[in-house]
Specification:
It holds the Pfam family Ribonuclease_P. It comes from Thalassorhabdus alkalitolerans. The chain contains four helices and four strands, in the order H-E-E-E-H-E-H-H. It has 128 residues and is of the alpha+beta class. The chain has a single domain, classed as Ribosomal Protein S5, domain 2, CATH 3.30.230. Strands 1-2-4-3 form a four-stranded mixed β-sheet, with helices on both faces. Strand 3, helix 2 and strand 4 form a beta-alpha-beta unit. The longest helix is centred in the middle third of the chain and has 18 residues. It starts with 9 loop residues before the first helix and ends in an 8-residue tail after the last helix.
Length: 128
Amino acid sequence: MKKEYRIKKNEEFSAVFQKGTSFANRQLVIYVMDKPGQEHFRVGLTVSKKVGNAVTRNRIKRHLRELVREFKDDMLQEKDYVIIARNPVANMDYHEIKKSLIHVMKRGKILRSSRQSRQQSPKNIRKK
């Protein structure tokens, strides 16, 4: 992810937590805050030490970064997002995390078009 798409500073995380709205399921929490005048969205990722060791936390963050990269064209611009991974994510693979992230994004109406997420949903893949 490019630098301008990242939230890194503690004050920026705190602002999203205080002023933003949250959407959650059992695995993920997403905080969303409007940033009018900002050309693109920014994302911050948080994985607590309670989730697992460093290897596990970094794997989760890699998966989440890749998923954000995959959905970046469909995510609403002019917003800041903070994605928090909860404990169950430690035992999930990439496709399960993707399914969970799509679910939370739909709840928060973060995706512009739900068509792409429906196409990539595991239950819509034809089995031969």
